[in-house]
Specification:
The protein is built from twelve helices and ten strands. It is α+β, with helices and mostly antiparallel strands. The chain has a five-stranded antiparallel beta sheet with strand order 1-4-5-6-7, with no helix packed on it. Helix 4 (135-143) packs across helix 5.
């Protein structure tokens, strides 16, 4: 646990910064222990995993990809700003050693000695992979303008060929770009559907409660709605409706009742015509009688069935006497009644 304590910056109580200066001086060894035994030579022991299948030159044994070794890692050069590392390891089947280095220019590993590679490589162009520019080509483009122009024309051709695939990739990236917006849209949609379902459930519960039913209701269909609109229902004549009609009739009734006449309204058209004829005849006879009465009243002549009485004036003369009383008795004999009928 000493190396973990050093990494965690644990300083024991008896640590003296003047005497020990650092934790490595206090423990008397490097925090990486045996892995750093050649650190003064620039070598660090690491775990190295075989990047591809190889054959060992010492024992001619096959070593599969993924086999791990304790390899000595050292820096042997630079590719631009990327360091080039060499890994030296011992074969687990024989005492021979193998050396492999990194190749940043081609994104690969290169065997220096002690083994040979099982050739399973292909042209990156055939596999539609990105081919990095060679260092010599880059130098030539920097110095040769014609080569640079030809290289630019080739790049344009490649761009036109890859335009459709690039557009597809751009659309896919744009579709999955805004995670927050997509999440918000999905939550809003689910929230709207949830409210609609709650509303439908509440309506179903109200209908079941009103009908005193305890059966599950099926979903509403458009055909059911269309058929329901075509059906006409008559008004229910229940107790509450009857009471409402009675109250409305009472409110619409006049406050003071009219005196009912003894005559009855005719029920048929023929009777109504006969009643109109009788009424017109009676009106004509009454008008003639009144006219004759007015004419004879001026002559002081009595008419049949009419008695005119004059009051006697007492003491005061005609002006201060009593007013004349007039009593008209219209008596119709049986003959005139039968004629009218």
């Amino acid at each position: 646990q000493g190396e973990r304590k050093g990494t965690n910056k644990y300083y024991p109580p008896d640590f003296d910064p003047v005497k020990h200066r650092n934790l490595a001086g206090y423990t008397g060894q490097h925090p990486l222990r045996e892995r750093a035994r050649k650190l003064h030579l620039g070598i660090l022991v690491i775990r190295f995993e075989m990047p591809y299948n190889i054959w060992c030159d010492g024992c001619n044994s096959h070593i599969g990809m993924g086999v791990r070794y304790n390899a000595e890692k050292s820096k042997i050069g630079m590719y631009y700003t990327t360091p080039i590392y060499k890994f030296r390891m011992k074969c687990h089947l024989c005492p021979s050693h193998m050396e492999i280095k990194t190749d940043p220019a081609n994104h690969d590993y290169v065997i220096i000695s002690g083994a040979r590679r099982k050739e399973q490589r292909w042209d990156p162009k055939d596999n539609e992979q990105i081919v990095p520019e060679d260092r010599n080509d880059q130098k030539k483009m920097a110095t040769d303008a014609m080569f640079k122009l030809e290289h630019g024309a080739n790049d344009k051709d490649k761009a036109s060929e890859a335009k459709s695939s690039l557009a597809h990739l751009t659309n896919v990236q744009a579709f999955h770009k805004d995670d927050f917006g997509l999440n918000q849209l999905a939550r809003s949609k689910f929230r709207t559907e949830k409210k609609a379902l709650h509303k439908l459930d509440s309506e179903d519960d109200a209908l079941l409660k009103k009908s005193s039913l305890n059966v599950p209701l099926v979903e509403e269909h458009d055909d059911d709605v269309r058929m329901a609109k075509l059906i006409k229902y008559s008004t229910s004549n229940n107790y509450s409706n009857k009471q409402k009609e009675r109250r409305d009739a009472i409110h619409s009734r006049p406050l003071f009742h009219r005196i009912a006449t003894a005559t009855k309204s005719p029920s048929s058209t023929k009777e109504r015509q006969i009643a109109e004829v009788k009424k017109s005849v009676q009106t004509a006879q009454a008008s003639k009688l009144n006219q004759a009465f007015d004419e004879q009243a001026q002559k002081n002549v009595a008419l049949k069935g009419i008695v005119r009485e004059k009051g006697k004036s007492g003491g005061g003369g005609g002006a201060s006497g009593k007013a004349e009383g007039l009593r008209a008795l219209c008596d119709y004999d049986s003959s005139s009644s039968s004629a009218d009928e």
